[in-house]
Amino acid sequence: MAKFTSQIAMLFIVVALVCAFVPVFSVDESEAKSLWDTCLVKISPHCALDIIAVVFGNATINDSCCHDLVQEGKVCHDNLIKYIADRPALIARETLYLKKRDDLWSHCVAISKTA
């Protein structure tokens, strides 16, 4: 059962990434390109998936990815999560996702300060 739940979670992450970054789904293609060029290049794909899994699922994040997130910056983090949360399939729970985004940021800042 845990394997099935894990597979569903990974499927959700992949679908969220596709919806967020494929231009046909985006509201403004230039906005997606700008986010990619300025923000996503600052963080590893592994950590980006972990961050999405934390905000849009029930995953946890490791200290290394927390450091990457803080280096990426709050503006990038806020904008990327908001951009994904604005997708039609996710908009109904946007408030929850934005709270989880802010909680993750606070957690990672605290982790980064202790290192």
TrEMBL record:
Which keywords does the record carry?
Answer: Signal
Q: Per the database record, which ranges form the Prolamin-like domain?
A: 38-109
Q: Which InterPro entries match?
A: Prolamin-like (IPR008502)
Endpoints of the signal sequence: 1-20
Do you know which PANTHER family this protein is assigned to?
Answer: BIFUNCTIONAL INHIBITOR/LIPID-TRANSFER PROTEIN/SEED STORAGE 2S ALBUMIN SUPERFAMILY PROTEIN-RELATED (PTHR31951), BIFUNCTIONAL INHIBITOR_LIPID-TRANSFER PROTEIN_SEED STORAGE 2S ALBUMIN SUPERFAMILY PROTEIN-RELATED (PTHR31951:SF27)
- State the name under which the record lists this protein: Uncharacterized protein LOC104747918
